[in-house]
Amino acid sequence: MKKHPIIWFYILAFGISWLGMISAALGSHRIAPFDSPYIQLLSIFYAVGPALAAVIVARTADGKTGVQNLLKGLTRWRVGLVWYIVAVLGSLTLLITAQGLTKLLGFSAIVVTPQVDLSPYFVMGLMVNFFANMCEEIGWRGFALPRLQKRHNALMATLIVGILWSFWHLPIVFLVGNPMAEYPFLWFIIILANAFIYTWIYNSTKGSILLVALFHGSLNVWGLFIPGVSPIAYALVNCVVAIILIAVFGKANLSRQKRVYAG
């Protein structure tokens, strides 16, 4: 693990998470014994896989110091008010723009947005959502991205993270009722384009996992309230934003700040 931390991270992240994802997908098709509530508890590995993999590799490669350095980004909250606005409202802007484009171009929005209410269960769901997103970002942006940015420019590092992050979602395509099952290729493009926005936020906040997780969580939450968004329109919007970020900030750092890389 010391010689090839990135490779080991992805092996563990995929292995741990897919244990939960594949179990959930098989259970959604009522395939025994995966439809059992006890087996479905394995789905927790889906959420914690990237974080657990990052901690294991960081601990093995660099000891306690490695884990401490990995988790520093969770407490990096003094980043300026503007980045909190970007994290919370930037995600909303993406969805509203995609909604408008859907109507303008007459795209079909097949995915039906569920009705939600601000009940204690919904609030608890938001907390679980944020925890899951935090675990993802500890792995993708907290561990993988800074190590890749040490060897590559931000553009190449983001492409690697984005492609593997997209592929990591593959078992969800087989989950009954999941939006990704309808247009898997489009969602892979969306996730890859999203990765450039995440890198921009991460590098601009000097490595704040907290802010990236806030953006990730906000995107999921706002998605519950913004109906009629076509995956095609959403993919177009995210691709345009990714291209703008590359054009404005350059491939070296994708930010006005220098790219963050592991020491």
Automatic annotation (TrEMBL):
UniProt-recorded Gene Ontology molecular function terms: endopeptidase activity; metallopeptidase activity
Lineage: Bacteria, Bacillati, Cyanobacteriota, Cyanophyceae, Oculatellales
Organism: Pegethrix bostrychoides GSE-TBD4-15B
Domain of life of the organism encoding this protein: Bacteria
Domain CAAX prenyl protease 2/Lysostaphin resistance protein A-like: 121-221
Keywords assigned by UniProt, alphabetized: Hydrolase, Membrane, Metalloprotease, Protease, Transmembrane, Transmembrane helix
Any Gene Ontology biological process: CAAX-box protein maturation
Membrane spanning stretches: 7-26, 38-58, 79-98, 118-135, 155-177, 183-201, 208-226, 232-250
Family matches, as InterPro entries: MmRce1-like, Rce1/LyrA-like_dom
Name of the featured protein: CPBP family intramembrane metalloprotease
Statement: the UniProt record of this protein carries the keyword Membrane: yes
